[in-house]
Amino acid sequence: MNEFLRKKWEMVGLADDYIFNKVMLDYDICLEVLRRILPDLHIKKIKLPNNQQEFAVAPDAKAVRFDIYTTDEQGNHYDIEMQVADHHNIAKRIRYYQTASSMEAYDKGQPYEQADDSYVIFFCNFDPFQLGQQRYVLHKHIDEIPEQIIEDGQTDILFNVPSLRHDVDPKMQAFLDMIAQREVEATDPLVVKLKERIAVIKRNRKWRSEYMRRSVYEMDQEMREKKIREGERKIRDGKREILEGKRELRKSRREIQKSKREIKEGQDRLKEKEQLI
Prior knowledge:
Pfam families: PDDEXK_2. The chain is an alpha/beta fold. It is built from seven helices and nine strands.
């Protein structure tokens, strides 16, 4: 187990959410990544990135902990997420993250029109909508006039990391290539910083131990969930077998009833013949 985890630690890159979080906590890297994602905003500075930001939209609501959360000098809010596995719930997941982020955009007593803008950004190690795009930018629109975007201050951006379409800006493509561990131009300043930051993380014994503990926990959790799914499958199979058994039993009973009727009909015909004789 230790050898397996050690090799995993050595090979793991930005596509792993743990490494991604540690890398994006670097102020300069986070700022540059946001600038590449949203060049039109001309972001000058941000607050120190936080990976422990937790929100709950109501006391009894499900809480959400953002991977990386920050704001810029204009008050825009940014949630940056690394999504490793496809759980087929990305749309509802984004909706909840955006709701939690947007709650921070409204100060008490502040007019609605002064609310800050909120950006939820997902880097997905799969195509989130299976439509073949490299980048998906989501806004609300009017159904009857699809081209009419509703400017409510909310923007969702999802990147399909494995995509090879190269539809994004070359600088953004370099970051996506780094996540996907593809060959990338070594002279790009961000690429240099990313490699240096990853090397620093890999040398950190505390983070390595934390990563291994988390990996063991996740494997145990996955095993438990697998056993639960297996148990649920057996229960479903058992219920199906019981239903099939009941159907077979009803079928057998009908056949028995049919046979009894045929026997009775045969006996009645035999009596009629005996009476004729």
